[in-house]
Amino acid sequence: MISSILYVDDEASLLEVGKLFLERSGQFPVDVITSAPAALELLKTGNYDAIVSDYQMPEMDGIAFLKKVRSSGNTIPFILFTGRGREEIAIQALNQGADFYLQKGGEPVSQFTELEHQIRHAVQQRRAEASIRDHEQREADIINFLPDATFAIDTDGVVIAWNHAIEEMTGVSAAEILGKGDYEYAIPFYGKRQPILIDLIFESDEVISQKYEHIIHEKNTLIADTTHPFPKGKTITLMGMASPLYNRQGKVIGVIESIRDITERKLGDDAIRESEQRYRNVVEDQIELISRFRPDGTHVFVNEAYCRYFGLNRDEIIGKRFLPDIPPEDRERVRQFFASLTPDHPIDSIEHRIIMKDGTVRWQQWSDRAIFDPSGSVTEYQSVGLDITEKKATEAALAESEARFREQYQNNPLAIFTWQHRNGDFVLADYNKAAETLTSGRSHDYLGRSASDLYAHRPELLSEIRKCFSDRTVISMDLVSEHFLPGRLIHTTASFAPPDLIMVHMEDISEHVQAEAALRESEAKYRGIFAAESDGIAVVDQKTGTIIDYNDALSVMHGYQKDELLGLPITTLSAESDATSTAITEETPYIRDRFHKRKDGSVFPVDITVNAMPLQGRKVLIGAIRDLTEHRRSEEALRQANRSLALLTNVTRHDISNQLVALNGFLELLHEKVRNPALEDYFKWISQVSTRINSMIQFASAYETVRKTDPVWQDIRMLAETATRQVSLGNVTVKNEIPTGAEVFADPLIVKVFYNLVDNAIRYGGKISIIRFSLVDRDGHGIIVCEDDGVGISDENKEKIFDRGFGKNTGLGLFLSREILSLTGITIHETGEPGKGVRFEIKLPNGAYRFANTP
Predict the structure, then answer these.
(1) Are 229 and 254 in contact (CB under 8 A)?
(2) Which residue(s) pair with 419 in the sheet?
(3) What does the pLDDT look like over 369-424, one tens digit per residue?
C-alpha cells in the first residue's frame, strides 16, 4: 500500500486529470500543487511515497526541483513527467537522481497507466532498497555490538567488517582497517602479515593444528585457540570461531571470525587442573588422615596416610567396620559430637584421644562433615584428621611457659607497664606488682587509658612512643612524672615487643639524682682534700703498676715537677723496687719502714698505707706515703733523752733502794734497843711508809717496761692459766672456760692484767669460792670475762678502782692493767652486780682476737 503521491505541474487541468486517473485504482491518494517552491514547503510537513513533477514550470523547473529535493537528503522516488522530449533533459534528470523519465502525449489511458506502473515500480524498488539497507544496518549493528571481537573479510581477503570489541582488543579502529587486505588484520595480533584462523577455514585439520590447538572443525564452523605474545606486551590465549559468509544463491562471499580472549579461563582451567592434582595429592600423598564411613562405622574410603597411621592396609579397612579404640572417658563426648551434626550444622571439629595398638595414647583432631540424603538422614561421614599429640604437648609447654612468663613478669623487681597499640594509639593494658608498689596503687587508675589522652599536651613524648613502635627500637629518657609518680623524676626505658606491645620500665631516680649531686660534691671535697693532704698520695693501676694520678705533695716529696710522675712506674719512687712490686701484687695494706728515693737519688724513710678499690673499670691502689725523715730524727732524739732519763732513773732508784735497806736496818736495830710500848705505833708507821716507798719504786720499774715491746698474738687460755699459777688460791677454785686456740693481739705485759684480776679477787672478794674466765662474741667483738662470787663492787666505785692510788694496797694494779690494755685499743670495765661478785669485761677490738690457724 502506497501512502500518497505528490503531483507537481503548473497546468491545473493536467493536475486534475492526472489525479483522477491515478486515484482510480484506489492504490494511493494523490496531492496536487502548481509550483515547485510550494511543493518544497509541502514536503517539509507531508509524508509522501513518490513525487511526479513536470519539467517546464515558471518559477522553478523540474530539474531544479529535483536538485533541491536531493540536496536536502531526501531519497523519495522522483518521476519526471514532461511534454519535452529532448534526450538531454532525460539524461540530465536521471543524472540528478530521478528514478524515471516519462514523456507526456499520446493516448491518456495508456499514458497514465504507464505512469501508475512507474510510480508503483519506483516505490517498490525504493522500499526494497531501504529494506536491504535496513537489513545490512541491522547486520552491521549486530556484528558491531557482539561482545566478542568480530571481523569479516571478502573472498579477496579485504576487511569488510570490524566491530567495536575488536577495536578495543587491538586498538585499531574500523576506519583504519576497513577495505584493507594482504593479511592486514593479522598485524594487531601477531605483529606481522600472515594467514590466521579466518584464512584456514577450508584447510585440513592437519594444517590447522600446526598453528592452533583444541581444534573443533565441524561443517561450516572452525573453532580453535592459540597462545602467543600479544603485541601489547603480554602473553594471551585467544579462541577463534570462523564461518563462511554466503549470498542468497549460496555462494561463499567471505568469511567471518569471532575472537575471544580466554586467558583468564585458561588460567582458571589450569588452576582447576592444578587444584584437582593438589586434591589428589591431599588425598593420597599428604599427612592428613582422610576417610569416609557410614554411620555404622563401615569405611568406604581411606587414604594412604590413614592406613600408615593405623598400621593397616586398605583391604583391612575398606568395607569393614573399623572403629579406633577411644578411651572410655572420651567416648560419650565423641558420641555427642556426631549426634550434633545436622543438615543445618553439618560440619564441626573435635579433639580426642585414641589408644594405639601398642597401648600408647595419642591425641587426634578431626574435621567431620555429615552427608545427608533428601530425607535428612545421615548416609556417610567424611573426616579429615591430624595427629596433634606433639601440638598438645607444645600447647601444654606453652601454657606452662606463659604462666612462668606471667609469674616472672608479675614478680619482676623492676616496675613494668605494658602499652598495646590500638587504632593508631597506645592503651595501658597491664602492669606488674612492682609497678603497683612503685606508684602506690595509682597504676590501676590509668588502666585502659590511652597515651594520647594522658599526654595530649606532650606531643614530643607521644612522638617518641610512636617512633619506638614503628622503628622497633628502644628509647630511654628522664622526665618528671605527671600521673604515676606526680612530681618525681623518673627514668623510663621503652622497647617494642611483638606483635603490638610497648614495654615500659619505670624507675624513680629522684634520690639517685640527688645522690649523684652529693657524689659530685663529695668528689669535689675529695679533690680538695687530695690536693691539700700533706702526705704524698699516688693512684696506681694495679695491673700495670703505673701512676695514673697523684697530689702535689708526692711530687714535692720526691723532687719532681708537677706533671713528671704521670704514667711512670711506681717503682721509680722506690729504693726497694722488688719489695714494692710484691706489695702491689699482694695488695699489702700497710707497709712500714720502707725507703723511697728522690729524683736526685737521695733515699729517705717512709710509711705507706694502701687501699685497693675499683676505679673507672680497673682496679687501682691508692697509697698514702708519709716522709718519716723528721719523725725518725725526733724519735732518735726522744730515744736519746729516754736513755738518759732511764739511766738517771735506774741510778736514782738503785740509790733509793739501797738507802731504804739501810733505813730499814737502822730502824730494826733501834727497835731492838728501844722497847717502849708508847713508841710501837711510831715504829709500825715508819715501817709501813718504807714498804710503800719500796712498792712505788717497784711500780716505777714495772711501768718503765710498758711500751718497750711490740704487741704479739698470745693464747688467752694460757694467760689465765699462767696468772692463776702465780697466785696463792687457798680454797678458791678457778674455772678456765676460755676455748682452746683463742688468741689476743696485745702487749706481752697483758699477763699482769690477768694476775691482778685474780689477786684482787682473792684479796678483796670476801667469802669468795670461785673465779671464772670465759670468752664471748658480742657484735663482732671478743669479750674476755673474769667474774667471781664475792662481795662485788659498789656502783660508785666501778670506775674509781681504775684510778691510780685507789684501794687498800698500792692502788696501782688496775690502773696499770688499763694502761697495758689501752696500748692495743683494748678496754676494761667492771659490770658486776654489787653483793653478787665482780665481773670484769675486757673488750677486744675487731682484728685483735682470733683462733689458732686463722689469719
Answers:
(1) no
(2) 428, 502
(3) 999 999 999 999 999 999 999 988 888 888 888 888 888 888 888 889 999 999 88
